[in-house]
Amino acid sequence: MQSENSEEASSDAPPHVLRGNAAKEAQGDQTFVGKTVTIGKPRQEIYDIWKDFTRFPSFMENVRQVEPIDESRSEWLIKGRPGAT
Question: How far is CA 35 from CA 23, 55, 83, in A?
Fold first, then answer.
């Protein structure tokens, strides 16, 4: 547990996204495997798709439906294990 005066940064980010000393400390001798995908579309087009939650079911396998309620809220139907929260 860190003290209040500690200068160490704490993060709940997975180690493979950390940089510098934080990455060295978090990774130790662990190996991480990742995947890079190149999308041949303009950035603005990709961002427009990403910010429109109603489109998520087209590329996220566990998202079944997203219905807007108002400007700041939406109702999501997500596939999951029975009884899981």
Answer: 18, 23, 31
| Cα distance between residue 76 and residue 54, in whole Å | 9
Tokens 């001798």: give the residue. 29
Tokens 């990742």: give the residue: 34
Q: What's the pLDDT band for 31 if we cut at 50, 70, 90?
A: low
The answer to whether 76 touches 63, Cβ cutoff 8 Å, is yes
Give SS3 for 30. Answer: coil
CB 62 within 8 A of CB 79: yes
pTM of the model: 0.47
Distance CA 83, CA 61 (A): 19
Burial of 33 (0-12, 13-18, 19+ CB in 10 A): exposed
Q: Tokens for 28, please give them.
A: 């130790």
